[in-house]
Every structure is written in structure tokens, then in C-alpha cells.
Amino acid sequence: MGAGHGHAHAAPAGHAGGRYRTRLAAAFALVAGFFVVELVTGIASGSLALISDAGHMAADVVALGAALVATKIATRPDSTGRRTYGSYRAEVFASGLTVLIMLGVAAYVVIEAISRISGEPDVASTPMLVVGALGLAINIACMLLLRAGSQESLNVKGAYFEVVADAAGSVGVIIAGVLVTLTGNGLGDTLVALAIGIFVAVRAVVLGRQVLAVLGQHIPEGMTLAEVVDDLESVPGVSDIHDLHIWTLTSGMNVATAHLVVGDGAAAQEVLAAAHRVLAERHHIEHATLQVEETPTNRCHEVNW
């Protein structure tokens, strides 16, 4: 019987989110500065679309700030000896905070918009157009900063989703400004604010499902257990597999454990090495703890997950 542990990303420097801290910081500075401008202009102009987008910007500020803190914590070595997996999950918790903020902003905007539909709010359109255009430019810049990181880190992906939603919000503000200018009625501003709120809620649900999948230790997205089993069983010397578990620790870091039953005469270390290669090369699982057995132990069969 033998065991093997593969860990190509053992160093904190391999953490996906940590590689994008500079870009997160730049996006945070841009969004925080514009949030103040948009909120003041929204209150002064009476535009719910601007105020709702400013509320979403506030969510961005908190989300980006949380993302920065999370990536700092996640890349920090553990000095206590208690966190055997390190602090990588910090980014997942930060993404969960982003989801809660987005849902809160969406609820406020939708409720406020519904309450204003029956009225005729007085809205100044020129500030809406100017600030909407400025906000769109800033959000596009932030999207370019975060786009690459959103493919690797759930934390950066949460921040990226926020910025994408804000870009859509800025487009909505511009449309609302045009409608108010053409009609002289503030109803268009209210309807656009309602659309922004619904859009933000949908994006929050999408990200929230991903966060829950990680926290629930589901098999990573795009991977199937059957395929992993088939590939491991194709390793020379492996006759059976049991107690296979695969989950995501944090973005870009998948983890697996399994017991491999080997046939007579099979070299345990060779089987382990080959199994680790299969997991890393075919499924991007580079953190794997594998145990080799000549026959399944009774204890393995007694465990019911």
C-alpha cells in the first residue's frame, strides 16, 4: 500500500487571484472616484437611473476592495499551522460578499423604481448624459483591466461581473438621458433604473451559483466524475477505483483524493506517478492525494458519503 501527493501549486505565489492585484487596485481607484461623482450628480439631477447606477458602483467599490483584501490574504503563508489548505478560500468568501451586495442594490433599485412609476419625477437630462458617457468609458477601462483575470480567478470574475453590469448600467443611463431629453418626462429614467436593477439581480444569481458550487465542494465545472474514473482506470496496473472525490479549493486550484486498487505485480510508485500525470494533464488536477491498495479495505466499503 502506498500514497502519493501531487502539488504543483504549493507556493502561495501560484494563486490565480494574486497575480491580478495591481489591476484590481487600478480598477478600484477608478470606480471609487467615479462613484462619488455619479452619486452627487444623481442626487442633484433627481435621476433614479444615476442613483441606482451609483448604488451599483458602491457595490463595485466594496467588491473590489474585498477582492483586494481577499487576494492579499489568500497569497499570505499560514503562520499558525492550523490552516492546512492555506487561506485560498478567502477569495470565494469575497465573491459571496459581492453577490449579497449586488442583490441588496438590485432590491433597492427595483422597489424605488416601482414606487416612482405612477409619478412624474423631474429629472435633468444633461448631467445624465455627461456622467453616463464618463461612466461607460471608466467601466470599459476596468473591463479591459480585469478581463484576463476573470478567466482564472473566481474573485476577479466577481469583480469583472460587477464592472460589466455597471457598463450596462452606464448605457442605460445614457438611454434614459436621451428619453428624458426627447419626451420631457422622467418615466424613461425610472424604467431604465428598473431594468438596471433586474440585470444586476440576474448577474448576482449567476455568480452566486458558482460560489455555492465551490463552497459545496461540487465537482469542478466542465468536469465529469465518469471521465476521471475512466482515465484513471486506463492507467496500467489499476484494476479499480473507489473513494474518489474532486472539488475546487479556489480558482485555478482543483483537488482530488482517491484509492486505487492495483493488480498483482503492479509497481505502486509507477502507478502513482502515472495516475498523477493523468489527473494533471487531462483534467488540470495538480493537487491529488492518491492511495494504492492491493485489495479494497473493509473500512473503505463501510464509509458512506
UniProtKB/TrEMBL annotation:
It comes from the Bacteria. Signal peptide: none annotated. It is found in: Membrane. Pfam families: Cation_efflux, ZT_dimer. Keywords: Ion transport, Membrane, Transmembrane, Transmembrane helix, Transport. Gene3D superfamilies: Cation efflux protein transmembrane domain. The keyword Membrane applies. InterPro entries: Cation_efflux (IPR002524), Cation_efflux_CTD (IPR027470), Cation_efflux_CTD_sf (IPR036837), Cation_efflux_TM (IPR058533), Cation_efflux_TMD_sf (IPR027469), CDF/SLC30A (IPR050681). Belongs to the cation diffusion facilitator (CDF) transporter (TC 2.A.4) family. SLC30A subfamily. This is Cation transporter.
